[in-house]
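RECORD TYPE: protein structure
NAME: Carbon-phosphorus lyase complex accessory protein
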Amino acid sequence: MTSKYIGSVKFHAPYHPSTVLKLDKIEYRIDSSCGAKNENKVYLLTHFHFDHVRSCMAGGADFLSLSEDPIKIYAPYDTRKEYGETENVFDIHYKMINFHSKGRRKLVPIRENEILQFNGTSVNPILLKHTIPNFSYYISNKETSILVTGDWEGSNYKNREKIISLSPRVLITECRYFLEEEIEIAEERMHVHLEDVLELKEELEHSLIILTHVSHRYRELDDILKLTKEKDLILAKNISFNNSGYRIRERFK
Ligand SMILES: [Zn+2]
Ligand SMILES: [Zn+2]
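PREDICTED:
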């Protein structure tokens, strides 16, 4: 039986960076935990901020099946050397993840526009400016296209131009701040404000826009859920989509 929805996306929590996209029988796990059964799963890391690194390290080493090859986690080849370190950011994390997973997870370096292919789907890493290098992932096949942004500077003109030129069917974007008095802090910290998303939305008429990774300061979600709905944006735990619509399968409580 064929489903009328061609893809779905699941989140762990509204605050959490983990994004799990299911498309054409493959699960794309972006900044997301590793489990025991890893066939038909693709692991991607957007950038080396600790909330994202920690999220992809979750899942525990002990139950990772020893019969399987080590899990590959594709990650930006970030060659910066920081804080007096002699090794670069990528290598430091490669060792750390290798160590904590007892060799069961390996970071695989990828560069901007180095396209990965999985069946008929391609994954294109596209750099979006944030406080450190961040890859958004443009995941597309014959049927549809999805952009998962990671963290990005919402007020940055070039970032927006990149997203608009891709014009994905589904845009899954960080949206850290929502209130008017938070516009400045969003700019300062190179994160996304609701206003940035609304400006983008005007240019992306045919995109479904899903928000995620909101600030912990909204412990009471009711207000921002209402605001999101009013603006015709989506904030939910589990969403199915096709090229003409979507269905919310589970809401955030
Ligand atoms: Zn983050
Ligand atoms: Zn970040």
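COMMENT: The chain has one domain: 7-250.
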